[in-house]
Amino acid sequence: MINTLIFLVALLSIIVIVLTIMVFAMARQIGILFERISPIGAMINDSGPQIGAASPSFDLTSLNGGDVKIGYKGDKSTLVFFLSPTCPICNKLLPAIKSIQSAEGSWLNIVLASDGEATKHLEFIEKHAITNFPYVLSQPLGTTYRVSRLPFAVLLNSEGVVLAKGLVNTREQLDSLFNAAETGFASIQELAKQHTIS
């Protein structure tokens, strides 16, 4: 009986040691993987207003009440977030949008944009408790920025100049728009490429 217990304890000790070694080996491999894969930012499209160019101006009305001006000079930058009630990724990013509004509201206005019939959008606004965001329906707005897939975001500075834009499927890609504005590079890929050259 005692010999069996000693054998089992020894066997368990060996298993624990092997598992510990495997965890360290996997952690090392994950570290190597992160070094090899450069970070991916928003997927930029080259059509529509170019980065660094002035945005066309829009006078719109919010479904939540009030007028919305996009592309005009103002006291804050503007993030236009294109979404749809039927887009599951858009729904998943709404908590991130709320978080960004709370953290960056001192210098940033967020406008939610879509198109289509108002009824389903009003239901969507109520369901997700986004009544404190301007929510505009404008097909010309999406056409101007060449929005072909959702979710898509455009960051404008207080002068109405396009700082960054692109398809944003994750919070990281959304944050990359702000990184692009801060660094002056249109994308993380462009920044990585510049560092590789120099």
TrEMBL record:
Q: How does it sit in the membrane?
A: Single-pass membrane protein
Record's GO cellular component terms: membrane
Enumerate the Gene Ontology biological process terms: methylamine metabolic process
Could you tell me which pathway this protein works in?
One-carbon metabolism; methylamine degradation
**Pfam families given for it?**
AhpC-TSA
Which GO molecular-function terms appear in the entry?
A: antioxidant activity; oxidoreductase activity
Domain Thioredoxin, residue spans: 49-183
Record localization: Membrane
Q: Where are the transmembrane segments?
A: 6-27
| Main localization (coarse) | membrane
Key words, A-Z: Membrane, Transmembrane, Transmembrane helix
What InterPro entries does the record tag this protein with? AhpC/TSA, MeN_DH_accessory, Thioredoxin-like_sf, Thioredoxin_domain
Q: What is the role of the protein in this entry?
A: May be specifically involved in the processing, transport, and/or maturation of the MADH beta-subunit.
Q: What is this protein called?
A: Methylamine utilization protein MauD
